[in-house]
Amino acid sequence: MSGRDGTEWRKPVIVGEDVKPFMKEEHIYPPEYEGHFDGVMITCAEIHERIQQLATLIHTDYKGIRPVLVCTLKGASPFYIHLSDALKEIRQGFDMEFVRASSYEGTATSGQVEFVGELKMNSLQGRHILLIEDIVDTGTTLSALIPMLQQQGNPAGVEVCSLLDKRLEVKKYEAKYVGFSIPNKFVIGYGLDYEELYRDLKDIFVISQLGISFDASTLHK
Ligand code: IMP
């Protein structure tokens, strides 16, 4: 660990305001996304390196505890898979649960959070929940989800591990574990979507105007 107590790793990696230009030959992506990226926010190599650090921190903090890792679908799923793989490698046990929360319409949060899913609240009684999120934007989703889990599940504790955190002046919720602090731009890839597209990208990009205006129904053949 950069300082084996992990003090450095506890702080998110700061991604600067100036987004790296997109260089076609440096990335792997489906051809139908040509022209849909304005810049590169975070590469998959950077994500995987940071996941190792987060897994080590979680293992340090959950010594002797078997947390319930709750994946917020769909966006957090690649992060959840890679983080749980990293935890397995360091012999950190955990249980797995899934919840689906939705608050986005296009590139703006609707403010209304809906939950769908199979989460069995009685399985959370007295347990330490670690919610795995793709991104904390305004914090609306988490500020609705966490009280719901606390009231209905009666867990011993609820913490959040989010891959990304958008730098906004006002936030309703701050996650305990954050991979990257990013500028206030709409990002896609590595599970993050725009109108259900782009989840299938390895890296995280800033969406272009063409990406926003693209008609996804042309792909459904
Ligand atoms: P919040 O409730 O405003 O914190 O938003 C959280 C949810 O909005 C995330 O779990 C994402 O699904 C979605 N979201 C927020 N910002 C972005 C983005 O830049 N790209 C894709 N999805 C986003």
Strand order of the largest sheet: 1-8-7-6-3-4-5
In whole angstroms, how far apart are the ends?
Answer: 48 Å
Low-confidence stretches: none
Mean of all residue-level pLDDT scores: 91
Describe the protein.
With 221 residues, this protein is of the alpha/beta class. The chain has one domain (11-214): Rossmann fold (3-Layer(aba) Sandwich). The protein contains 5 helices and 10 strands, in the order αββαβαβββαββββα. The chain has helices at residues 7-10, 44-61, 77-89, 140-153, 209-213; strands at residues 13-14, 37-42, 68-73, 95-105, 108-116, 128-136, 157-166, 177-182, 187-188, 204-207. The strands form 2 sheets. A 7-stranded mixed sheet has the order 1-8-7-6-3-4-5, with helices on both faces. Helix 3 (77-89) links the parallel strand 3 and strand 4 (95-105). The radius of gyration is 17 Å and the shape is globular. 34% of the residues are buried. The mean pLDDT is 91. Bound molecules: inosinic acid. It is found in: Cytoplasm. Its main location: cytoplasm. Belongs to the purine/pyrimidine phosphoribosyltransferase family.
Helix-strand blueprint:
Blueprint: H1 7-10, E1 13-14, E2 37-42, H2 44-61, E3 68-73, H3 77-89, E4 95-105, E5 108-116, E6 128-136, H4 140-153, E7 157-166, E8 177-182, E9 187-188, E10 204-207, H5 209-213
Parallel strand pairs: 1-8, 3-4, 3-6, 6-7, 7-8
Antiparallel strand pairs: 2-10, 4-5, 9-10
Helix pairs in contact: 2-3
The structure holds inosinic acid.
Inosinic acid (IMP) binds at residues 75, 103-104, 109, 133-141, 186-187, 192.
